Amino acid sequence: MRAMLKDGILVVIPETDEERSAFADWRKAHDGHVFHLEEGGRNGGALKDLGPVADACRAPINIVFDRVEPKYRIVSNLARSPFALRGRRYESVEGFWQGLKFADEERRAEIATLAEAEAVRAGFDGVARGAFAFDGRLYAFGGPDHHALMREACWAKFSQCAEARDAHLGAGERPLTHRTRRDSRNIPGALMADIWMRIRARLRRREDDGDEPLASATPS
Fold this sequence. Notes:
Layout: E1 2-6, E2 9-13, H1 17-29, E3 33-37, E4 47-52, H2 53-56, E5 61-62, E6 83-85, E7 88-90, H3 93-99, H4 105-112, H5 116-122, E8 131-134, E9 137-140, H6 144-160, H7 162-170, E10 176-177, H8 189-209
Parallel strand pairs: 5-10
Antiparallel strand pairs: 1-2, 3-4, 6-7, 8-9
Helix pairs in contact: 3-4, 3-5, 6-7, 6-8
């Protein structure tokens, strides 16, 4: 291999067929990656692979179900990711959240089985202002206790659904955002993103501290 320095660029030139083949394989495996020049002296140095650009530069991930990369889609509230909360089963966080707009328990139970756009549409004719009752308590829509219910539901999802948890932790150190075409009044995007980020930190702490393992399967 021959190397050349040129206006801030390090050019690598393979000189034999064996080197060309090896370089082609290496380039394919590291396409789009970021490299850092480790400390060296006059006799040479080393470039360390920091990973793909998005990971190395901690590019934000906007968690919006129909726009985010498929591998992160299950992090979204709309994704089908079954969990149990206070003795009830939900197919998605969205199904839980939209069901709170209805006083009728049968209607809530129906919405609890929904995910994705179906869950969103189910809440169109619900009431999202004033107060609502849940599990024997009254909550104000958009208030701190309402937000606490969202945190509780999201924790239940990520602690019980292994696929969702793996995708969430798989985002590494990249920050999460939730920027939609029209922001929610009851759970603004910035608050939703903060909930996800805090849960990710909590999941990591549990792994690092060696706490009892989280559920590896979705609830029945």
